[in-house]
Write a structure and sequence with these properties.
Largest sheet of chain C: none
Structural class of chain C: mainly alpha
Largest interface: A-B, 55 and 53 residues
Number of strands of chain B: 15
Strand content of chain C: under 5%
Distance between the termini of chain B: 21 Å
Oligomer: heterotrimer
CATH superfamily of chain C: MetI-like
Shape of chain B: elongated
CATH topology of chain C: MetI-like fold
Strand content of chain B: 15-25%
CATH class of chain C: Mainly Alpha
Number of helices of chain B: 15
Helix content of chain C: over 70%
Radius of gyration of chain C: 22 Å
Number of domains of chain C: 1
Structural class of chain B: alpha/beta
Distance between the termini of chain C: 23 Å
Largest sheet of chain B: 8 strands, mixed
Shape of chain C: elongated
Radius of gyration of chain B: 25 Å
Order of helices and strands of chain B: EEEHEHHHEHHHEHEHEEHHHEEHHEEEEH
Helix content of chain B: 25-40%
Chain lengths: 462, 463, 293
């Protein structure tokens, strides 16, 4: 998706947080894994929307499927064991704002980007774009070429282990240069003033596609000074990207290699890499889990700051509810491959609907909680191999009833609060389901079941 | 060296329960070997002079970030590593503990009789000087549960062998009686006889931790060191394990040393908390008073950074700059001063600190040599311009004002810059409130004295 | 008792996994056949007197081709029965492999364990010794020993044993250094195990996996090298040994008398191939990433 050229859309610019035309829509996402033990239903019907500029926290424990969900929407899972069984990951990219060409103005609310209009209906709304008027792509079905354009440019990802994202053999500069060259070659040439005079050689250099011979020619031949101008521009962009992530002394750090940097610094470089091209969506997969808490705090500050400034939507994946509470606008709780509850952050924490969410909150030692008040969730996560149709939490739920063992609950909003949904029969009517009222769970159940530790099973995250 | 209230007349508190473990002046340094001949070029000062008392029945929470030395300290207390200096004392009755502190405080003023008395205490209680019999008693009474449940159980041993080995080793049971006892232990941690003949890989993380706990309990110890026992576990499983630890403590009257980087868990589990930073203890107190009145800026920073402290608000009250210092070359004076948001000019600023700032500004390219003497330093540059630029850079706004204030006599001599620093002091823990110790110069009498001396006034009583 | 049963079951499971690998099972079959041949040699071919390990010479039938009555596989230029050489040669191969393997494993594991477990100066010294021995070519050493002590099969065993232990020392030292970091080693120490017991019960068993694979592959290699050494004449003349048989037949190959060299060489080849396949199969099964299922 190019971020060049003005848009001719008559589409009203989406307000940040506008839910009618979300940036990302996961519809009934299903991803299974073929393993020795059978087909593991890692993600089994996830529905989730992320609006422009919104932070959604995806919370779950080991085996919940949160990482699989995140990676599947940019098809980052190795495909023999992973099977994309069904569902859609609808992504609606943005493009540079025509008015300010990316620098921010009133029209784009300072973001510099506006939604790209649908190519079929030019913003009017049609079947193809689900009547949102926005250009819509199903990430699970787009071609490899389109996928590669989107990755890095529109959707970026940061990981728990920066060592996985950073190439140990390349300097920081080389890696950032790669990202800029891949997606922003035109801009680089323009900033170097070479837009009109660049021949094939320089163009390829800007896109990072020069061969060794070509690079030597550029360094030594008559195009030397122009090449140096181009390199200088690249350096500026890189230094800028590093400075944005508060890396001290960017000009010096640029030339370092990943192993020479501390954990927090590597994380910043990885964030700089991810945000280099101004993506629409940042997927953060437990980026601070391996960091010390004081460094973690600063990285979270950084993500929040960058998000504010660039209006990037963030999908923040974590097992740590406290972190998610601090940075998310909305929280989605994942359990055993299905969403248990979704809602605005504060609502979810103040009034958790799903028994699993309640259980999680009761199990975290809150700051200042008295000893002996921690209530664990008994039992263990069930095996996800060919799961029967039932509520996956029923074996550990204090309110479990016969209905829960035979029917799979769907996400359902309470009538009064539309944005807060839970997949639990406690909040549904028996007649709406066609189930006997006596088989429905109720809140008045007595206490938690007898402590069980569960069968020995090696439950690992696929 | 702990400055205690030992000079008061004896009170009820002196007739105390003694300590299960007392650590005095413990240091553990690891040599760094470099080069073909493996010459020792320095030491990683993982633990640098720690004092600690662990009373019977209490849970001490040891908290800190990576590199603070808490794991190393735990291993030294557990007898897995010999200390480089100082000692770990086991089972000190209260009068002996006080006497030990008195004798240690005397230092080189000890008389031959004192020396002999000290040697006696050492022989009877210090774990690296004990005789075989006492060592066995210590070994039976001090056990440990480790973090990584996967690598803390031998993958080739069955559960029965893992949990039963301590009983076998100390000849506490054999044959059918052993199996019975093992089953008892497994049941006490929520497992059962069906798990006896299984291998560790057949269990989940939480269950493996339970097996580790069962093994730790086999010898019926008095004291268990828990090194990040729940850090690798999911929230719901963590709660199960923490509850289990609680119940076991009540049932068996156990004493715990709970090591963790998670402040929430530490606060939840501990009676008293010890905060460590780069090998030293910076603050220690009973849990509630510590959070009501934090007497060390590092503790403030930890609490501010802890996501669970504040609910939904982001408290950007304190954010630490920079990275954790290299334990092989820690900052002088108070080790936290390089990142401290409340540092004063007495906190131990010296040449290395200003060098770091100059490097950030990119002014060190012309640096050729650094000469240090006590309280002064000379930076040699290639050209006088470099020297001038550096001297100017020392007063740049990016340099903290306390650092600027700590430098004196900055002058240029050709292509050299000379400056003077206050010689850094060795900070030590001081009891500033009852039972609440800190090493921060903002609160200790040491710090107050330094400030008033500088201002030419008479020393005031502690803040 | 129950514990023993569980362990045996685990062993059975691993063995089944090995056998599922077709090349590994093929290799195992060949090895078993060779072992049987070695064990039952006197029943298959009547022992020669006075020394059963000397090929019986039939001066009436030199260079006899296969199928000659009394010599199913033909004879050497000296009338030595090729079949005899093959069958009794298997005995020598088994002896060679077992003896050299036992010595090298014992020495290598001991020295490697000392280096890895104690570390420090011991590590330095032992590893330097390993470096020295590793630089000695077996061939030159064997020649030297033969030169001093005279050519004999025993000296071949000696030469291979002197040089062959270094790989085990290196590998087990590396494994021990890794295993030492594991927390279960600390757990063993904290319940009061003596350092020796910690090593025997916790460190060694978990360091042996790669050794098993290497040793299996080595069994093939030992016989291969041993045959080479006896081929160049470092064993007693006329010995009923595969390499020797090949040596006896090498001249005749040009003249079209293929059987001596071929049958001798084929045995060596089969032996080495069988152990290689078994070794590969074991490696796949014992891969630590897969272990634990």
């Amino acid at each position: 998706m190019s971020h060049t050229g003005p848009t001719t859309a008559t589409l009203p610019v989406t307000e940040p947080g506008d839910r009618t035309a979300p940036l990302l829509s996961l519809r009934d996402l299903r991803v299974h894994f073929r393993t020795e033990r059978g087909v593991v239903h890692a993600v089994d019907g996830v529905n989730l929307d992320i609006a422009d500029g919104e932070t959604v926290g995806l919370v779950g424990e080991t085996g919940s499927g949160k990482t699989v969900t995140a990676r599947s929407l940019i098809r980052l899972l190795p495909s023999p064991p992973a099977i994309y069984v069904g569902g859609q990951a609808l992504f609606r990219p943005r493009t540079a704002c025509g008015q300010c060409a990316g620098s921010g103005c009133a029209k784009c609310h300072g973001a510099g980007y506006v939604p790209e209009p649908c190519q079929v209906c030019a913003g009017a709304g049609c079947e193809g774009c689900q009547h949102t008027g926005r250009h819509t792509l199903d990430m699970l079905k787009v071609s490899g070429r389109v996928l590669r354009t989107i990755r890095g440019n529109n959707i970026a990802m940061i990981f728990q282990d920066p060592n996985k994202a950073l190439n140990p053999n390349l300097s920081v500069r080389k890696q950032l240069a790669e990202v800029f060259s891949e997606h922003r070659a035109g801009e680089l040439l323009r900033d170097a003033g070479l837009e009109h005079e660049a021949g094939a050689l320089l163009r390829r250099s800007a896109s990072g596609r020069s061969s060794f011979l070509e690079r030597r020619t550029l360094d030594l031949g008559p195009l030397r000074s122009r090449h140096r101008r181009l390199e200088a521009v690249i350096d500026e962009h890189i230094a800028g990207a590093l400075a944005d992530t508060h890396v001290p002394n960017p000009k010096k750090i640029m030339h370092r290699f990943p192993h020479e940097l501390s954990g927090g610094m590597k994380q910043r470089v990885m964030i700089a890499l991810a945000l280099a091209c101004g993506p629409d969506l940042l997927i953060a997969d437990e980026p601070t889990t391996a960091l010390d808490v004081t460094i973690q705090a600063r990285i979270l500050d950084l993500i929040a700051e960058l998000q504010e400034r660039r209006r990037v939507a963030v999908l923040y994946i974590s097992h740590d509810l406290s972190i998610v509470r601090q940075i998310s606008d909305r929280v989605a709780v994942l359990y055993a491959g299905r969403l248990a509850e979704v809602g605005p952050t504060e609502r979810l924490f103040e009034d958790p609907l799903h028994p699993y969410t309640r259980g999680l909150l009761a199990a975290i030692p809150a700051f200042g909680q008295r000893r002996g008040e921690l209530v664990p969730i008994e039992g263990t996560v069930p095996e996800l191999v060919d799961p029967p149709p039932c509520c996956r939490f029923h074996s550990r739920c204090p309110h479990a009833a016969p209905a829960c063992r035979h029917v799979e609950p769907e996400l359902h909003a309470r009538p009064s609060i539309q944005s807060h949904e839970a997949a639990c029969f406690l909040y549904e009517q028996a007649d709406a389901l066609g189930v006997d009222a006596r088989d429905m769970p109720s809140m008045g159940e007595s206490g938690p079941p007898a402590p069980r530790v569960g069968e020995p099973s090696a439950d690992e995250e696929p | 060296m702990t400055v205690s209230m030992a000079d008061r007349p004896p009170t009820q508190a002196d007739v105390g329960p003694g300590s299960v473990i007392s650590v005095r002046g413990l240091s553990k340094h690891f040599p760094i070997k470099e080069g073909v001949l493996q010459r020792v070029t320095g030491h990683v000062r993982a633990v640098d002079g720690v004092d600690l008392d662990i009373r019977p029945g209490e849970t001490i929470g040891l908290v800190g970030e990576s590199g603070c030395g808490k794991t190393t300290l735990g291993r030294c207390i557990g007898g897995l590593m010999p200390p480089t200096s100082g000692g770990v004392y086991f089972g000190l009755p209260e009068p002996t503990r006080r006497r030990l502190d008195e004798l240690l405080a005397l230092d080189d003023r000890r008389t031959p009789a004192d020396e002999e008395e000290l040697a006696g205490i050492v022989r009877r209680h210090r774990i690296d000087a004990m005789d075989k019999e006492r060592w066995r008693i210590y070994r039976r009474n001090c056990q440990m549960v480790f973090q990584d449940s996967f690598s803390s159980l031998n993958p080739r041993h069955l559960v029965k062998e893992i949990v039963g080995r301590p009983l076998e080793l100390h000849r506490l049971a054999t044959g059918a009686a052993l199996i019975e006892r093992v089953v008892e232990l497994l049941e006490s941690v929520g497992l059962g006889s069906q798990h006896l003949y299984r291998y560790p890989h057949q269990f989940s993380g939480g269950q493996r931790q339970r097996i580790s706990i069962a093994r730790a309990l086999a010898l019926e110890p008095e004291f268990i060191i828990l090194d990040e026992p729940t850090s690798a576990l999911d929230v719901s499983v963590q709660a199960q394990i923490l509850n289990l630890l609680h119940d076991l403590q009540d049932q068996h009257g156990l004493t715990y040393l709970f090591i963790s980087h998670d402040l929430n868990v530490v606060r939840y589990m501990s009676d008293r908390i010890v905060v460590m930073y780069v090998g030293e203890v910076c603050e220690t107190s009973r849990s509630e008073p510590l959070f009501e009145e934090m007497l060390h800026p590092y503790t403030e920073a930890l609490v501010a950074a802890n996501p669970g402290s504040h609910g939904s608000e982001r408290h950007a009250t304190v954010r630490l700059a920079g990275a954790v210092p290299d334990p092989a070359n820690p900052p002088a004076g108070c080790r936290f001063h390089t990142r401290c948001h409340r540092a004063t000019r007495d906190c131990g600023w010296e040449v290395d600190d200003i060098i770091r700032h100059l490097e950030l500004q990119g002014l060190l390219d012309g640096l050729t040599d650094i000469t240090r003497t006590r309280g002064a330093a000379q930076l040699a540059f290639r050209t006088p311009e470099d020297a001038r630029a550096a001297a100017e850079g020392m007063h740049a706004p990016s340099v903290p004002s306390v650092l600027r204030a700590a430098m004196s006599d900055v002058h240029i001599d050709g292509s050299r810059v000379e400056l003077a620093f206050q010689p850094p002091v060795r900070v030590s823990l001081e009891e500033v409130r009852p039972g609440h110790l800190t090493s921060c110069l903002l609160y200790t009498s040491q710090g107050v004295q330094m400030r008033s001396e500088r201002l030419g006034r008479k020393p005031l009583s502690p803040a | 008792m129950h514990a023993l049963r569980v362990r045996l079951r685990r062993l059975a499971r691993l063995s089944r996994a090995v056998l599922r690998n077709p090349s590994a099972s093929a290799g195992l079959v060949v090895i078993v056949l060779m072992l049987l041949m070695a064990v039952f040699a006197p029943l298959l071919v009547e022992a020669n007197t006075p020394d059963p390990y000397q090929m019986p010479r039939d001066w009436a039938a030199i260079n006899a081709p296969p199928g000659t009555p009394g010599h199913p596989l033909g004879t050497t230029p000296e009338g030595g029965d090729v079949l005899y050489g093959i069958v009794w040669g298997s005995r020598l191969s088994v002896r060679l492999a077992l003896t050299v393997a036992s010595i090298t494993l014992a020495v290598g594991i001991t020295l490697g364990s000392l280096a890895g477990s104690i570390g420090g100066r011991w590590d330095e010294y032992i590893m330097r010794v390993v470096d020295v021995f590793m630089s000695i070519p077996e061939l030159i050493l064997a020649l030297a020993i033969a030169g001093i002590l005279g050519p004999s099969f025993r000296n071949i065993i000696l030469a291979l044993a002197v040089v062959g232990w270094t790989q085990y020392a290196r590998v087990i030292r590396g494994e021990i250094l890794k295993v030492k970091q594991k927390e279960y080693v600390d757990s063993a120490r904290i319940i009061g195990e003596t350092p020796l017991r910690v090593y025997l019960r916790n460190v060694l068993p978990n360091s042996l996996t790669p050794i098993i694979v290497i040793a299996t592959l080595d069994m093939g290699k030992i016989v291969l090298v041993g045959a080479t050494l006896s081929f160049i004449g470092l064993a007693e003349t006329g010995l009923a040994e595969w390499g020797n048989v090949v040596s006896a037949g090498q001249q005749g190959v040009v003249a079209g008398r293929w059987w001596v060299a071929t049958f001798g060489g084929a045995m060596v080849f089969l032996w080495a191939l069988a152990f290689n396949m078994l070794g590969d199969g074991l490696r796949d099964v014992l891969d630590p990433r897969v272990e634990g299922r």
